[in-house]
Known about the structure:
The protein is an alpha/beta fold. 30% of the residues lie in helices and 29% in strands. The chain has four helices and seven strands.
Amino acid sequence: MITNIRIAVLTTLLMTGAAQAAEVIDVYRDPDCGCCKDWIKYLEVNGFSVREHVEPNMSKVKQRLGVAPRLASCHTAMIDGKFVEGHVPVAQILDLKSHPDLVGVSVPGMPAGSPGMDYGQTKQPYQVIGQTLTGTDQVVAEYSGN
C-alpha cells in the first residue's frame, strides 16, 4: 500500500513537472538589435526557454527558414518546425500548434506597441499574418493601436 502511494506521488510530481516544462524556441537575431533582445525577454517572462542564435546575415537565415520577404521583420524564430517572424505575441505563437495549415506567422515590420517594441505610449495597429502551406497569407490576429 505504501509503495502504491509513493508511486502515485512520484507520478503526480513527474506529470506536474512535465506540464510546467517551458516551450523551447530558437531565436535568430542580428548582433546589434536591441528590440530582438527585448522580444527574447518577453518570451522568457511568458515561460519560453529561448535558444538564442546571433547571426551576421539575417537575410540568409530568413531565406533558409522559408520566410517570404513580404513578411520580414528583424528577428526570426523557429518552434515545432514553424517560423515566427518579428514581434509576434505569445498567444499566436502558442496557437500555431492548432494550425497545421500554416508554416509560420509574422508581424511584418516593427510596429510600435508590439511585444519588444513597447517603448512609450505610442501603439500602432498591426496584424499577425499566417503563411499557409500553399504560400498565401491569412490574418490570424489583429491588434489595435492607441
